[in-house]
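Below is a filled-in request sheet from our internal design queue. Each sheet records the structural input a requester submitted and the sequence that came back. We keep these sheets so that new team members can see what a complete request looks like end to end.

REQUESTER: design group, bay 2
PRIORITY: normal
MODE: inverse folding
CHAIN LENGTH: 124
BACKBONE (tokenized):
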């Protein structure tokens, strides 16, 4: 392992000046199932695609589970900066959440959360 180069995290604003942990992200996820933060109409708008696979700040993808003909709709977002990588993925239909945080390079946080979602939704 090698230390990431020094980078002043106050420079990139929202891309690096925010900090969180898995517990905070889980609380945020749970709040999106209520009207604590946003109205139901606003939440539905967030997760509706504007382009092919992107809503209002959320990536929207279809994941195919091997034993299910219906793909999972996964909404989430990844982010990274020097030394930090994160991905939050949620399946609103099943209220499933995967949070992957890493401080290694390379960090395949998106691929890892996809695998977690597939494992959580595979019926065996």
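RETURNED SEQUENCE:
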């Amino acid at each position: 392992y090698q230390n990431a180069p020094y980078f002043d995290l106050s420079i990139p604003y929202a891309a690096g000046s925010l900090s969180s942990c898995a517990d905070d992200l889980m609380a945020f996820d749970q709040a999106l199932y209520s009207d604590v933060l946003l109205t139901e109409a606003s939440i539905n708008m967030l997760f509706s695609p504007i382009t092919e696979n992107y809503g209002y700040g959320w990536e929207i993808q279809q994941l195919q589970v091997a034993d299910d003909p219906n793909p999972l709709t996964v909404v989430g977002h990844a982010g990274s900066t020097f030394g930090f990588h994160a991905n939050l993925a949620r399946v609103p239909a099943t209220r499933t959440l995967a949070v992957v945080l890493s401080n290694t390079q390379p960090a395949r946080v998106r691929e890892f959360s996809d695998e977690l979602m597939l494992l959580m939704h595979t019926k065996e």
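SHEET NOTES:
- Helices lie at 22-31, 40-46, 109-121.
- The longest helix spans residues 109-121.
FILED BY: M.R.
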